[in-house]
Write a sequence for this structure.
């Protein structure tokens, strides 16, 4: 299978595989399974999330003898995949998950697709039926390499036991360099059982894989010239900046230029939320200031971002007056959605560092940008349309307030993992992210059920830090079984269920676009039950469910109890904690750009279009 490079930041957490040679370690005689575990030890994998089964079973026996690899027995393979992703996002290392053939492997498809969309480095190891049975529709056979080909950066079917060390070394190298992403290694059972040899480092061979990290100097100089000539520039920062560990360089560039900064959903924490240059998150539910800045800009400097539809809205109306500088490690992303005036292929850290030098040279030559008028507009939009929310008239909990107080009361360095939906957007807006790798979420795939297992993986990798999962009652019911895994493996995460009794974001769309016809979005009761039962009669009772899984279960319904309940949860660190926050069901996420419409049509609140006061029809 030919290798292609794919893009948005660079990642260097794992040791690069070295070529074998005369200096290689002595050859050992082992089984294929022992070779696999030894290889994982050598590449630095310290945690594997998985479930044993028939074809992968040989690999589990040598784990008993391994002092370096911790295996976490999950309750569902999807949980293993998301845990590997959360581990990778929190630690910067490659996450590892393991499953058996057939349904075990196909249960990894969703988290692999999720990691692919968000450029997360994971290695998925799957068992396969015996070599001679491949293609015969054997029991629990599935062509997992074929199934995952579109959603992996690369995948391998091992055909010789002696290739296991090389394959693992190459898989980790591919996953963690260039544009990070998932790599799958499929190993037939007979190869795990076979007698083979092991030596490290192996001889690696990836002739088609040469990620470009160093940007072209001419393109850098042209970008610096455009930045100093622009009147309305915006730095459009994507998740690639975090993956490249380029946040320090980004801060220097922003302060040197004085240009406003927007950070996408995947880039929250790449630039401090509290910084005066930060406008917030752009996109469908972005801040008015961030969305409007991109629309009115005359220059957009895209760094490790991919101009996805949730940011651009209706593409042909996006930033109509802007020239585009697009820097990305994946050449396939540049020009894919929006043509670039200055394309720059390279690692985000190297690109930004070189831009700093080039912009400083422009300044030294007397060329500096004057953004005074631009900032007058930006500050007016920011002050006129700040983020906010209304307290429910009936005295119930506002979900935004719950999430905001969780963020304010959380210990320093807390990692937040969010599910997908309204609570995800509120967590993006109402928690302050000052440092990278403190915000984990499923951005590209939008995977419900992500939060609990991802938080579990993050906590397993960053044990000394508090980890909160911000989840909805819909998302929570997809993967909450991993709380059993947390309870039995001493992984004390904290889970906030923002419980509005409905699939909240879908219900919001039904309110706005389907005349309040709420078809199949109510979760807490059946069609013949009371419309809004009290918390004690809801099905399921999340407090009892949490307790049944070995966790502490708490509930909060009264705003006057909010801080005390959150502080109680923060104080419990020997077991997982689940807090059922009963919130008002009609709260909506604002601002909002309706799907398929122009960002010019952003609504600050329902039926409320911002007035930009510039004489244009906005």
């Amino acid at each position: 299978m030919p290798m292609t490079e794919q893009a948005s930041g660079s990642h260097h957490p794992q040791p690069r595989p070295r070529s074998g040679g005369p200096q290689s370690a002595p050859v050992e005689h082992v089984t294929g399974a022992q070779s696999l575990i030894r290889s994982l030890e050598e590449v630095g994998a310290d945690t594997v999330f998985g479930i044993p089964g028939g074809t992968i079973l040989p690999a589990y026996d040598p784990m008993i003898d391994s002092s370096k690899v911790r295996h976490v027995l999950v309750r569902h393979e999807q949980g293993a995949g998301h845990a590997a992703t959360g581990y990778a996002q929190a630690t910067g290392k490659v996450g590892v998950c393991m499953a058996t053939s057939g349904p075990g492997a196909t249960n990894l498809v969703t988290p692999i697709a999720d990691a692919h969309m968000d450029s997360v480095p994971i290695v998925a190891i799957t068992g396969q039926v015996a070599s001679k049975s491949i293609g015969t529709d054997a029991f629990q056979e599935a062509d997992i390499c074929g199934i995952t080909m579109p959603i992996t950066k690369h995948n391998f079917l091992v055909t010789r036991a002696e290739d296991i060390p090389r394959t693992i070394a190459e898989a980790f190298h591919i996953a963690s360099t260039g544009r990070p992403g998932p790599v799958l290694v499929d190993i037939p059972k007979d190869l795990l059982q076979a007698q083979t040899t092991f030596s490290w480092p192996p001889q690696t061979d990836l002739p088609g894989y040469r990620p470009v990290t160093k940007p072209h100097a001419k393109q850098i100089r042209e970008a610096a010239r455009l930045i100093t000539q622009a009147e309305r520039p915006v730095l459009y920062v994507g998740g690639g900046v975090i993956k490249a560990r380029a946040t320090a360089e980004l801060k220097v560039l922003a302060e040197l230029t004085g240009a406003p900064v927007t950070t996408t959903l995947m880039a929250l924490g790449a630039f401090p939320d509290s910084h005066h240059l930060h406008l917030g998150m752009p996109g469908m539910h972005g801040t008015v200031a961030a969305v409007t800045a991109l629309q009115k800009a005359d220059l957009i400097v895209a760094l490790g971002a991919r101009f996805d539809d949730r940011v651009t809205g209706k593409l042909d109306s996006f930033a109509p007056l802007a020239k585009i500088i697009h820097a990305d490690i994946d050449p396939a992303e540049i020009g894919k959605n929006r043509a670039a005036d200055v394309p720059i292929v390279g690692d985000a850290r190297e690109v930004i560092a070189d831009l700093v030098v080039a912009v400083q040279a422009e300044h030294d030559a007397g060329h500096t940008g004057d953004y005074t008028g631009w900032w007058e507009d930006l500050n007016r939009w920011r002050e006129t349309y700040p983020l906010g929310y209304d307290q429910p008239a009936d005295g119930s909990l506002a979900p935004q307030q719950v999430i905001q107080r969780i963020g304010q009361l959380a210990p320093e360095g807390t990692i937040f993992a969010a599910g997908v939906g309204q609570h995800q957007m509120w967590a993006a807006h109402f928690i302050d992210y000052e440092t990278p790798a403190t915000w984990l979420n499923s951005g590209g795939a939008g995977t419900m059920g992500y939060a609990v297992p991802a938080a579990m993986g993050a906590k397993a990798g960053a044990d000394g830090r508090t980890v909160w999962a911000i989840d909805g009652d819909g998302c929570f019911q997809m993967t909450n079984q991993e709380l059993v895994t947390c309870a039995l493996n001493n992984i004390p995460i904290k889970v906030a269920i923002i419980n509005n009794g409905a699939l909240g974001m879908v219900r919001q769309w039904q309110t706005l676009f389907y005349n309040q016809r709420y078809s199949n979005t109510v979760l807490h009761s059946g069609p013949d039950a009371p419309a809004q039962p009290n918390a004690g009669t809801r099905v399921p009772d999340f407090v009892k469910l949490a307790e049944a899984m070995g966790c502490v279960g708490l509930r909060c319904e009264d705003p006057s109890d909010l801080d005390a309940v959150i502080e109680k949860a923060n104080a419990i660190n020997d077991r997982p904690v689940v807090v059922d926050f009963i919130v008002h069901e009609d709260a909506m996420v604002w601002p909002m750009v309706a799907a398929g419409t122009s960002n010019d049509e952003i609504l600050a609140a329902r039926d409320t279009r911002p007035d930009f006061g510039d004489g244009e029809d906005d």
User: Anything to note?
Assistant: The chain has a mean pLDDT of 92. The first helix runs from residue 32 to 42. Residues 399-582 form a domain with the Rossmann fold fold (CATH 3.40.50.970). The longest strand covers residues 122-128.
